[in-house]
Amino acid sequence: MLLALLCALQVAAATMPASSVSPLMVRVGDRVRAIAVVTKSGQQSIRVDQLVAALGGIFSDEGDGRLQMQLNDRKLTVLERAPYVIAGRDTLQLSSGVFRRAGVAYLPLSFATQTIPRLVATLRYDASKREMRRITSATAPRTESPRAESGNPKSPIPPTARPKLASTTASLRQRVVVVDAGHGGPDNGMSGPIGAPHKVKEKDITLAVAKALRTALERRGITVVMTRSTDTLIALSDRGKIANHSKGDLFLSVHVNAANPRWRDPGGARGYETYFLAEAKTEDEKRVEAMENEAIRFETTADASRDDPLGFIIRDMAQNEHLRESAQLAELMQRGLRRIHPGTDRGVKQAGFRVLVTAFMPAVLVEIGFGSNKADSSFMTDPDRQRDLAETLADAATSYFERYERKVGGTP
Questions:
Q1: What are phi and psi of 65, to 5 degrees?
Q2: Which H or E element spans position 354?
Q3: Which of 31, 40, 170, 385 has the highest count of CB atoms within 10 angstroms of its CB?
Q4: What does the pLDDT look like over 209-257, one tens digit per residue?
Q5: Measuring CA to CA, which residue among 155, 188, 364 is closest to residue 272?
């Protein structure tokens, strides 16, 4: 009898799915649904279509490399070939990407327990009950809206001189600008100024300016997608993927420069410059290219090869119309910075930045100043000056769109 019982237990254990774990409970009002959780390579994952349906949302998987979800008033897009979710003007990194089983899409469980509650104000996760639930809108916290900019008496660009929404966007269709804050997470970028006891980090400056740029563009009626809106590391190649999947019209990457320590007076170097994608020609262009591409060392899964494949892509894109458009956009950026930046105009330049290689649209990288220089560093860390920089870059983007519309006769 005992032997038979042991055999029965062994058979039951053998037939039990190895991936069996407790389901995720989803509560919407009085209705409760259990969503199965599976394990793959040690990570718990959940079926996206079942999760969205249980939350009362709409799910779409059209096979175009994007999973679309509508949850309440929030539209979420998950990129199948990169572990990111785009929600309005924010981009969040997932612990892992999409995997499919029998053609059905699965996402990491943390997408439900951590990501969705951050993006949808009326959804909460109770870890003690392993339960997601919708709360009423009356008890949900108000979502933060972009803060309207007030005039600043010290600003070199008075609010009355800034373009009005009606005058800058009346003839434009809805445009999308992808704003990329350089570096992030463990990648601090440059730090400076030289000789200063307190250092500033490039990743902090670029994020602050990128957020201000987002606000400035949205005031002009332009849709903005951020490659990062928090202090997180986004792979250089993935930033371009985010831009492409967002169907961006422009890609603007914000960075802070650093002097070559071998220069005669590295601490005295200052100014601003704008790059578009092409093969670097001068030694200084190659220096900046190498400095900004160095971020790849923080990407544990990235392909660090910079031999023939990158050269081929650069040469191929050099014959693409995006190259000419990018050069024009870079000139507009540089011309605008000339009006408000106290540093040296270092001109429009070209280099093979990895962050620009995969963005198949007009794309530029703006070095807004030298963090190694005390004066430039002070300028770039001043919130008022950050807003001035953002307004100037937004003006340049708007001017580019207006010129493009005139060139093509108003056709998108």
A1: 85, 5
A2: helix 354-357
A3: 385
A4: 999 999 999 999 999 999 999 998 888 778 878 888 888 899 999 999 9
A5: 364
Query: What digits encode the pLDDT tens for the residues 39-76?
Result: 988 889 999 999 999 999 999 987 777 899 999 888 99
Does the pTM surpass 0.90? The reply is no
Q: Are strands 84-87 and 74-79 parallel, antiparallel or unpaired?
A: antiparallel
C-alpha 108/C-alpha 127 separation (Å) is: 16
Long-range contacts of range 16-22, CB-CB < 8 Å, 24 or more positions apart? 22/130
24-28 vs 131-134, strand pairing mode: parallel
DSSP state of 209: H
Residue 208 dihedral angles phi and psi, to the nearest 5°? -65, -45
Architecture of domain 159-260+267-407: 3-Layer(aba) Sandwich (3.40)
Confidence grade of residue 286 (pLDDT, cut at 50, 70, 90): low
Instruction: Supply 208's token pair.
Output: 């602050």
Of the candidates 295, 252, 310, the one whose C-alpha atom is nearest the C-alpha of residue 276 is 252
CB 66 within 8 A of CB 245: yes
Among 91, 404, 76, 397, residue whose Cα is nearest residue 251: 397
Q: Confidence band (pLDDT; 50, 70, 90) for 290?
A: low
Q: Where in the chain are the domains?
A: 19-134, 159-260+267-407
In CATH terms, the fold of domain 19-134 is Copper Amine Oxidase; Chain A, domain 1 (3.30.457)
pLDDT at position 20 is 55
| Residue 351 identity | A
> How far lies 339's CA from each of 134, 249, 332, in Å?
50, 25, 11
Between CA 246 and CA 254, with CA 252 as vertex, the angle to 5 degrees is 130
Token look-up 């001017």 returns 399
Cα dihedral 205→208→213→215 (10° resolution):
-170
> Is 240 in contact with 355 (CB distance < 8 Å)?
yes
| Residue in the structure block whose two tokens are 């490399």 | 65
- CA–CA dist 342, 25 (Å, integer): 58
Q: Which amino acid is at 387?
A: R
* DSSP strand pairing (223-226 vs 250-257): unpaired
Task: Say what the pLDDT of residue 387 is.
Answer: 97
